[in-house]
Specification:
- There is one protein chain.
- With 195 residues, this protein is mainly α.
- 85% of the residues lie in helices and 0% in strands.
- The mean pLDDT is 88.
Length: 195
């Protein structure tokens, strides 16, 4: 039942925003009385925080899975796979992605705190993982260069994420290809310098 409630909350949030996503609409979608929701969640804010957590955790798990699968490949392949993973994950769950975009701008203090905590945890994992990949690929690379490449990856990855809402079909595929090519040119610079 909790999974159904979370899915309904994300759907309602994506369609109606936080204020329009009432407990009544969520309950109707699941086929229960609104009061029954309080058996699982203490209030609307608690339900949305759990929905938000599920969405963010699913994204984090997807990125970990890609990195584990590609860990032994060249850095360029890993970066490209991660861009594709961002796109696949969010395109595959547009309802969740729309809800996420709405939740990020939410007036709910608990969600803001959870987002901050999650992003801190995700960024620490991402930086440590990409740092390890770059050090393995380019052992002589200086820490400031590693930091720059990671920041560039994050910037390009954010562009891929927001491109999901801006581009469709072949145009979006082109954006992913361009993101990978841009990352490849940054890494080729390193290859010439350190190999």
């Amino acid at each position: 039942m909790q999974k159904k409630l979370i899915d309904a909350a994300l759907k309602q949030y994506a369609l109606n925003g936080y204020h329009g996503a009432t407990m009544r609409k969520i309950a109707n979608e699941v086929g229960i009385k609104p009061a029954s929701i309080y058996f699982f969640y203490k209030n609307k804010e608690d339900l949305f925080i759990m929905a938000f957590k599920q969405f963010l955790d699913n994204h984090f798990d997807k990125m970990k899975s890609i990195l584990n699968e590609k860990r032994e490949e060249p850095a360029q392949n890993i970066f490209s796979a991660m861009f594709e993973g961002i796109a696949d994950h969010h395109k595959g769950d547009m309802e969740g992605t729309d809800a996420y975009i709405s939740l990020v701008t939410s007036p709910i203090p608990g969600i803001s705190q959870y987002l901050y905590d999650h992003m801190k945890r995700y960024n620490e994992w991402l930086v440590a993982s990409l740092d390890s990949i770059l050090r393995n690929s380019y052992p002589q690379m200086q820490a400031d260069e590693i930091d720059r490449i990671i920041k560039q990856f994050v910037l390009i990855g954010n562009g891929v994420f927001w491109g999901i809402k801006l581009y469709d079909g072949a145009d979006f595929e082109e954006q992913i290809m361009l993101a990978s090519q841009l990352m490849q040119s940054l890494l080729e610079e390193l290859h010439f310098k350190y190999m």
